[in-house]
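Friendly challenge for the regulars: who can give me the structure tokens for this chain first? No prize, just bragging rights.
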Amino acid sequence: MPDITGTIRPAGAATVTVADTRGLSRTVKPDTTTGVFTISNLPIGNYTLAFTPSPGYNRPAERLTSTVRGLTTDIGVVTLQGNGTVSRGGGSWTANGSSYTGFFATGAVSPVTGHASVYLSTLAQGGGELVKLAWDGNFRGLGTYSFGVAPGQTIAGYSNPAATYGGLGLAYWTSPAAGSVTVSRFDAVNGILAGTFSFQAAGSNQTPGSQTVAVTAGSFSLRYVPRQ
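First reply, four minutes later:
Bragging rights claimed.
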């Protein structure tokens, strides 16, 4: 009897329910690593596939398909978009001797353009300590990237919007040869990025005097929605 198969991205973002025209249904859980699912031994006919999202994802549109005797019907990739209600990762770091945990991690990677970003925040709605890591067209996957300030380099920033000076939040940015970030895990298919970082950054115009911040023992791990 025929099968229906497909792929959920990111893996683990949804379960799949297939229903026929008589209202009979079956629910399966895709593979948590690859996102692939297969619904086997279905009668020949027309089917509706519905997707129940995991917390933090929007529900995608249903898919309509049919089965053919002796063949497997592949509906392709179903990509779920995050709705911003659930943290997709986290991290930790030490800044000038004080330790912080970034409970809220966001980011994205575009392998085609080489752009990537990671944001770690101690507060969900901002206002807390914030780490920013960004690749300006030079992201190539696993490896160590030195921080700089020129176009096409990797930059790092540190800020605390709640600690203001002159009405603006304190902000610091890396200067050349001020540290590095190492990407130790990268999965472009399932949207996984993890690594470690450390850097020194100098205060920007809205930061008093010549203050600096030393960020050490930094680490991050996040899931993101894959894109080109």
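The first strand starts at residue 3 and ends at 9. DSSP finds no helices and 17 strands in the chain. Your move, everyone else.
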